[in-house]
Design goal:
The complex is a heterotetramer of chains A (about 130), B (about 350), C (about 525) and D (about 375). With about 130 residues, chain A is of the alpha+beta class. Chain A has one domain: Immunoglobulin-like (Sandwich), CATH 2.60.40. Chain A is built from 2 helices and 10 strands. A 4-stranded mixed sheet of chain A has the order 6-1-9-10. Chain B is mainly alpha-helical. Chain B is built from 14 helices and 4 strands. In chain B, the strands form 2 sheets. Chain B has a two-stranded antiparallel sheet with strand order 1-4. The chains are: A alpha+beta (about 130), B mainly alpha (about 350), C alpha/beta (about 525), D mainly alpha (about 375).
């Protein structure tokens, strides 16, 4: 009888673990892709003239200066790739990174200039301003 | 000494007996209702309005609840098929308005038109229930539902002309709600009505009418046929052995219940002010069932006393709870409370161990 | 070989609330023996078997006295499942089979062969899947034990009765440890040829070392099959003999043969010459378990006519059929007028009345007051206790008259109650029976049918009830037809007694005839003699 | 006599055999006739209808399948499946609140519904055990009662006692879930998991696979000891009890299984709909599922998997075409609406009446004993001779 109890507890435990796992991989986040000037350490990183952002395997999004767009993703681990263009829309560089979202909240602000400059705090949780 | 002891013992016994007779659910509900009335003034609910509302609802719903009695008494179980009776009442109402009769005559006409429909429907319904003994309640429920849906089609198709009833333009068939104003609105309620100030009102006429119908039913159960009906419900085999036709008694009881349902809805309409067609009668059986059960009836035994007590308690709770609870927690929970109380009561009655299920 | 008997009962006693039903019952049963257990209805056979099986009703009523030894060891079974585990199987009189299951499924009901799978670990053993091949094999093995052939995948609902009986027995045999098999009236529902096959099968089992307790009313079978016969009467063993040393007559005499205190059979022969008041011709009644096929008899005015016979032979259906409670055919004449059958009101209005054997089911409105119970039939069929109101438009129930009537009967029949408004359900069995009698008398019948008037009531009440019946017969001149399983009760009260066997009258004799003669009629020995009416 | 009848089954002209088929399956036959008449009148193209039916089969089959187990156990139509649907909805509300997306969201909703369903099913089983012989009407009222409790929790408890973070879910007054919850995160997540297009028709393959899984489970389940016990109880409770089967426990298990499946089924259903009508979705589901399985030829005491699929197809065919047919024939779409409501309830009534009537007749036949018709003259003579 004890054996049965043990097995049942294990099954329940596995079920809970599956639930937690589903919670983690399924949790939806909104990534705000921002192409604005970014201030960090007293320095201003300017917005790109144009940048194509690709999160996971979604369609790339084009951002011009002062643009902000958003993508919905699930789970914390993602890849982001950007292709940066100059004024004449010539490609001037790319960067790709696998990363995990850190911090609380379901919205994150991803700064493209910061990401391009490989700054450490290139993304941060985003608080919706009170309406 | 011994005498005194005996007395005490007796009074203990009689309290126990009283509780047993009245039943815990009724005592709890009664106390709850009483508490609501006591609490009302403290939360700025006008007691006079509350009492008045309770009385109005009591008069409105009494006959619908009474429609449970004949069927329960004959062993057909709770009349979940009440919508069928209500439909006969609706037919009476609709044809009366089509004829353009007004005032008290309109009410009488409606009763007169309702009667043949109710007897006809009741006969068919009764014959059906005789063929499904032991499963009456669930089938009654669905017969009620089906008939409401069927009549919804009929309301659309009926070639009636009265402008009060048909949609003005572009619509099809009859309106979903038809005002009884100008026809028989309050013809009973206003008769000998007592008004004190702006918020106290006793619909004397309606209550008298309701009590009169109760009296008719009471008289019926004191006749030879009524006695036979009770015996059929109590033990069909006994009744058969005494030469009573069980099926005939059951059919009569169903016809009576159906007729009472029809009259009941007419009384309801004259007070409420509207005739509700289409899906209106759909759920009307449940509050009536709950009320009579709260009044102390069981699945196989019901009396006029159960009707009066039950209707008063149930309608009292429905009136008082929202007004008191709302003003306490500022929320309108009346609908939820109604659902939980009425269905909880029915559920309680259904799960009581009764022998009626075992006997065919 | 060891000599310990397989089963030994040592002074088993049992009472139900002071009512002694078994007194000092002792016997032994050897391995491979067949023991025939006989006795009248109510002699205590059923109770004895219930004790052996540890049925719940025994514990609920205070257990039993004495000891049961199985294989020399003292056993006390707490539930039938204990008894089954100890190797005792029982086949009840009513079939206990699932209609939509096959022979195999029924034989292995709740003992199916199963296969393991992983889900068993999480839930329980019931998640195992059925191993149908294995089940087939096991069931056929059990059937083989009987020495007969049964189709394994035939549905019970499509089986002839005999197959059902064999399926039941096979189910008990399939238990690995089966040592003792109790068969309760196994041949009652079988045809003669089926019964022969069954007897042969039982013999087979005995030869294989299984002991058998065989309960039957067919004494020929008992003599034919059993090694030993035990006769119970009034809860005590009155005879225990090897079957070879006894005869049907001897057993029959032992079964009956006791007289009721204060009553003696009397001859009132002079009455029997008058024109009959009730004439029954070729009556058949379709009452489950109590069918009669072709019954004709006459009853003389003022007579008490008894109808006896063993349970299930059809005696009960005679009054039930005539009074219209069960489907019946044939013809019935009362005072020269034909009585419509299948019409309770017709029979009542002709002047007949009926006290049903099913007191609580048919006889009473349990949840209504006594006065209603007593007056209802008279009110409905004779329009008494009604007051016309509004020029007869309404027939108003006269509650005062009803109460007065009830009060009158409460006094004259000594019904112990709190008053006419007490509900019938609250009375004791004997008082309920008196209410039933009052109901029957209240319609002022010319002829009264009384069915099993003393069943399930205590001794004191018994006498009162019988006295009442006799009083109304003697003083009011009511003709009585009394149906009873208790022969002595009939002999004490009746003028003539008809015995019903297998749905037919096997004989009508004056009550003064010897008990043995009736007993033989009951167990089928009248079947060969022409019926006298 | 009996053999005669049996032989008849396979003889006769095709027409006679056809007639017998109709007599054996009156309800499905009636619905085929209605559909055949109404489809042309509705003016819908066959392609459209097939697409709709494929969608609805995927949407409803799981729920309808959940009714089978209690029918096997002799408990009739499980009107209490509404409670399972509620559990499923509560699961969906939570995953929507937590913003769990796609298939993980669906599965998480199912897992959340699981303990609730088990609890509700257990309570339902307990209550129904107290109302043996009246299971259906009791289940029916229980569903209403539970609806009250559900409203109490969802309309008043959620957002006040139970924390709901997502403001979009909550009514403007600050607590209680909105009437309509947009299930944008999980909308058709399962239906579109494996996109298949066949002859221009979108087929929600993943959902169908999920349903197939349940069918296999049911088929397998019938072969288990537990399934066998349920069959035994369904046919004769007393005999089963006497044989040592734990009747009450088994009945509870049957209802628990049904409730759990209904909970999962409701999640499947809602992901297809995409919008949760917080206070209505579960109410209709019981009635529609029961009507569907009955239309498929199931009875109160017998149901097979094929009844489910046939029933869903026929019921929804009628559901789709009747408003348009009503409009085209009589000029009133409302008429068709009411017609389908009438048919849903009507078919349940007819099925219940047929079942009760049959049972009553069986009981009467049992009372009438051996089916004796009169004195067997031959036998009587034999004795006299």
């Amino acid at each position: 009888m004890n054996r049965k109890l043990l097995i049942r507890s294990a099954v329940v435990l596995v079920l809970i673990m599956v639930a937690v796992f589903l919670f983690i991989i399924g949790k939806g986040y909104t990534l705000l892709l921002d192409n604005k000037d970014f201030e960090y350490g007293g320095k201003t990183y300017e917005a790109f003239e144009m940048v194509k952002v690709r999160v996971d395997r979604e369609e790339p999004i084009e951002l011009y200066p002062r643009d902000r767009d958003m993508v919905m993703v699930s789970g914390k681990a993602h890849t982001i790739g950007i292709t940066v263009y100059n004024k004449n829309y010539d490609e001037i560089g790319t960067r790709e990174l696998k990363f995990r979202l850190k911090g609380k909240g379901s919205m994150f602000l991803l700064s493209m200039p910061a990401f391009g400059a490989e700054l450490e705090p290139w993304f941060a949780p985003f608080k919706t301003p009170e309406l | 000494m011994a005498e005194k002891h005996r007395l005490r013992y007796n009074s203990m016994e009689s309290i126990k007996g009283f509780i047993q007779k009245v039943g815990w659910p009724r005592i709890i509900i009664g106390i709850f209702l009483f508490a609501l009335f006591v609490a009302a003034p403290f939360v700025e609910v006008k007691v006079s309005t509350s009492i008045s509302d309770t009385l109005v609802r009591f008069g409105m719903n009494g006959i619908l609840v009474l429609a449970m009695v004949p069927m329960v008494q004959s062993g057909c179980g709770l009349n979940f098929g009440l919508p069928l009776g209500i439909i006969s009442g609706l037919l009476g109402a609709v044809f009366t308005i089509e004829l353009g009769i007004t005032g008290f005559a309109a009410f009488l006409t409606a009763v007169a038109i309702t009667t043949p429909f109710a007897l006809l429907f009741g006969y068919g319904y009764g014959e059906l229930l005789n063929r499904v003994k032991g499963n009456e309640m669930v089938i009654a429920t669905y017969v009620g539902f089906s008939s409401v849906a069927f009549m919804s089609m009929m309301w659309l198709l009926m070639p009636l002309k009265s402008p009060t009833m048909v949609w003005g333009y572009g619509g099809e068939g009859l309106r979903t709600t038809i005002s009884t104003e100008g026809f028989y609105l309050h013809v009973l309620s206003d008769f000998l009505a007592v008004r004190l100030g702006s918020n106290f009102f006793i619909p004397t006429g309606m209550i008298i009418f309701m009590l009169f119908i109760c009296l008719l039913v009471w008289v019926f159960f004191h006749t030879k046929t009524g006695t036979a009906m009770t015996a059929v419900g109590s033990n069909p085999d006994y009744a058969r052995a005494a030469g009573v036709s069980v099926n005939r008694m059951r059919t009569i009881s169903v016809m009576m219940s159906t007729w009472l349902g029809g009259i009941g809805i007419l009384v309801y309409q004259q007070s409420f002010g509207f005739i509700q067609l289409y899906m209106g009668p759909f759920f009307m059986a449940f509050p009536a069932v709950a009320a009579i059960l709260i009044g102390g009836a069981s699945v196989h035994k019901a009396s006029i006393y159960n009707v009066l007590i039950g209707t008063f308690l149930f309608q009292g709770i429905l009136t008082m709870t929202p007004s008191v609870v709302n003003s306490v927690i500022n929320t309108d929970m009346s609908e939820v409370i109604r659902i939980i109380v009425s269905n909880g009561m029915i559920l309680y009655a259904l799960t009581r161990v009764t022998k009626s299920g075992s006997r065919a | 070989m060891d000599n310990t008997p397989l089963l030994e009962l040592r002074s088993i006693t049992k009472d139900f609330f002071g009512n002694q039903v078994l007194a000092d019952v002792s016997f032994t049963l050897e391995k491979g023996q067949v023991l025939g257990l006989v006795g009248e209805n109510g002699a205590g056979k059923t109770t004895l078997m219930k004790i052996l099986f540890g049925m719940g009703v025994i514990h609920e009523t205070g257990g039993y006295g004495g000891e049961i030894l199985l294989d020399g060891e003292l056993v006390t079974f707490q539930s039938p499942f204990d008894a089954l585990a100890a190797g005792i199987g029982m086949v009840h009189q009513e079939f206990s089979l699932i209609p939509g299951f096959t022979t195999v499924e029924n034989i292995l009901l709740n003992r199916e062969s199963t296969r393991y799978n992983l889900l068993v670990e999480v839930f329980d053993d019931r998640m195992r899947t059925l191993d149908r091949d294995m089940m087939q094999e096991r069931a056929l093995k059990a059937i083989d034990l009987l020495g007969i052939k049964l189709e394994g995948d035939m549905l019970v609902s499509e089986m002839p009765v005999g197959h059902k009986q064999f399926t039941e027995i096979a189910r008990e045999l399939e238990r690995e440890n089966i040592k003792l098999l109790v068969l309760d009236e196994p041949t009652a529902v079988l045809t003669e040829s089926e019964a022969e096959i069954l007897i042969e099968a039982v013999r087979n089992l005995a030869n294989r070392g299984i002991s058998i307790i065989f309960i039957s009313h067919r004494l020929d079978e008992i003599i034919d099959l059993c090694d030993k016969v035990v006769v119970l009467r009034d809860g005590a063993i009155v005879a225990e003999k090897p079957a070879r040393q006894t005869s049907v007559e001897e057993i029959a005499e032992a079964m009956v043969g006791r007289s009721l205190e204060g009553y003696q059979p009397i001859a009132r022969g002079e009455r029997l010459t008058v024109e009959p008041v009730l004439e029954v011709k070729n009556l058949w009644v379709d009452m489950p378990g109590e069918t009669v096929r072709d019954v004709s008899f006459t009853v003389k005015p003022g007579e008490i006519f008894g109808i006896g016979g063993l349970a299930g032979q059809g005696k009960l259906s005679i009054p039930n059929g005539i009074m219209g409670l069960y489907k019946a055919g044939g013809s019935v004449f009362f005072e020269g007028q034909e009585v419509p059958l299948n019409n309770p009101a017709g029979a009542l209005m002709a002047g007949m009345s009926f006290v049903s054997e099913d007191r609580r089911g048919v006889g009473l409105l349990l949840e209504e007051p006594l006065d209603w119970n007593i007056a209802f039939t008279a009110m409905q069929t004779q329009n008494r206790f009604l007051k016309p109101v509004l020029g007869g438009l309404i027939k108003w129930r006269d509650d005062k008259a009803i109460e007065a009537l009830a009060q009158e009967y409460i006094e004259s029949l000594q019904i112990r109650c709190t008053g006419p408004s007490q509900n019938a359900v609250e009375l004791s069995g004997g008082n309920q029976q008196k209410v039933c009698l009052a109901k029957a008398f209240a319609v002022k019948p010319k002829l009264l049918f009384v069915s099993e008037p003393t069943r399930g009531i205590d001794v004191g009440a018994k006498k009162l009830v019988l006295d009442t019946i006799r009083r109304y017969n003697r003083e009011n001149g009511i003709t009585v037809v009394m149906v009873s399983s208790e022969l002595e009760e009939l002999r004490s009260l009746c003028d003539r007694i008809a015995i019903i066997d297998e749905g037919r009258i096997s004989g009508v004799r004056p009550a003064t005839e010897k008990s043995t003669e009736f007993a033989l009629l009951m167990v089928g020995h009248g079947r060969k003699t022409p019926t006298e009416v | 006599m009996k053999n005669n009848k049996k032989n008849k089954k396979n003889v006769g002209t095709p027409w006679e055999r056809f007639k017998r088929l109709i007599i054996a399956y009156p309800v499905p036959a009636l619905f085929i006739v209605i559909s055949v008449l109404a489809i042309p009148a509705s003016g819908f193209s066959i392609g459209y209808l097939v697409q709709e039916l494929s969608t609805r089969l995927a949407r409803n089959s799981f729920l309808v399948l959940s009714l089978i187990v209690p029918i096997i156990a002799g408990m009739g139509l499980n009107f209490g499946m509404t409670l399972g649907a509620m559990a499923g909805q509560i699961g969906l509300i939570f995953v929507t609140d937590w913003n769990i997306i796609g298939m993980p969201g669906l599965f998480l909703a199912m897992i959340i519904s699981l303990p609730l369903s088990i609890l509700f099913g257990y309570a339902t089983g307990k209550i129904l055990n107290k109302a043996k012989g009246r299971e259906m009407v009791t289940g029916f009222i229980l569903a209403f009662f539970a609806n009250g409790i559900y409203q109490l929790v969802v309309l008043y408890g959620m957002g006040s006692i139970i924390k709901i973070g997502n403001e979009a879910l909550v009514l403007s007054r600050g607590y209680g879930i909105r009437n309509a919850v947009n299930l944008v995160n999980v909308r058709q997540a399962m239906d579109r998991l494996i996109p298949v297009k066949f002859l221009g028709i979108n087929i929600p393959l993943a959902t169908f696979l999920f349903i197939a899984l349940l069918c296999f489970f049911i088929l397998w389940f019938k072969k288990t000891k537990l399934g066998q016990d349920m069959r035994a109880i369904g046919q004769d409770m007393e005999v089963a009890e006497a044989a040592g089967i734990a009747v009450e426990k088994t009945r509870i298990i049957a209802i628990v299984i049904s409730t759990v499946l209904a909970g999962i089924g409701q999640v499947v259903y809602m992901q297809n709909m995409g919008t949760l009508n917080t206070y209505n979705s579960h109410e209709q589901i019981g009635m529609f599922s029961i009507a569907a399985i009955l239309i498929g030829g199931a009875t109160v005491s017998e149901a097979k998997i094929r009844n489910v699929f046939l029933g869903v197809v026929l019921f929804h065919l009628m559901f789709i075409v009747s408003p348009m047919a009503g409009k085209n024939l009589i000029g009133s779409a409302m008429l068709g609406e009411y017609f389908r409501v009438f048919v849903s309830y009507g078919v349940i009534s007819i099925a219940l009446v047929l079942h009760a009537w049959k049972r009553l007749k069986e009981r009467e036949r049992a009372r009438a004993g051996l089916g004796l018709q009169g004195p067997s003259v031959g036998a009587a003579q034999e004795i006299e001779a």
